[in-house]
Amino acid sequence: MRYSVWALARNALSGHRAWPMAWKNPAPKKHYDVVIIGGGGHGLATAYYLAKRHGVTNVAVLEKGWIGGGNTARNTTIVRANYFLPPNSHFYEHSLKLWEGLTQELNFNLMFSQRGVINLCHSPAELDGFARRYNSNRQNGTDGDMLSMDELRKLVPALDVSPAARFPVVGGVIQRRAGTARHDAVAWGYARAADALGVDIIQNCEVTGLRMDGGAVTGVETTKGEFSAAKVGIAVAGHSGHLAEMAGLRLPIETHLLQAMVSEPIKPFLDHVVSSGAHHVYVSQTDKGELVIGGQLDGYNSFSQRGSFARIEDITAGMLALFPQTRSLRLMRKWAGAVDMTMDGSPIIAKLPVDGLYLNGGWCYGGFKATPAGGWCFAHTIAKDAPHDLNRAYTLERFSRNALINERGAGNRPGLH
Amino acid sequence: MMLITCPFCGPRADTEYVYGAAAGQGYPAPDAQQHELTEYLFLRDNPKGWHRELWVHRHGCGQWVEVERNTLTHEIRQVQALLQHEGKE
Ligand SMILES: Cc1cc2nc3c(=O)[nH]c(=O)nc-3n(C[C@H](O)[C@H](O)[C@H](O)COP(=O)(O)OP(=O)(O)OC[C@H]3O[C@@H](n4cnc5c(N)ncnc54)[C@H](O)[C@@H]3O)c2cc1C
Ligand SMILES: [Zn+2]
Question: Is CATH 3.30.2270.10 what the domain over B3-24+45-81 is classified as, yes or no?
Answer without folding.
Answer: yes
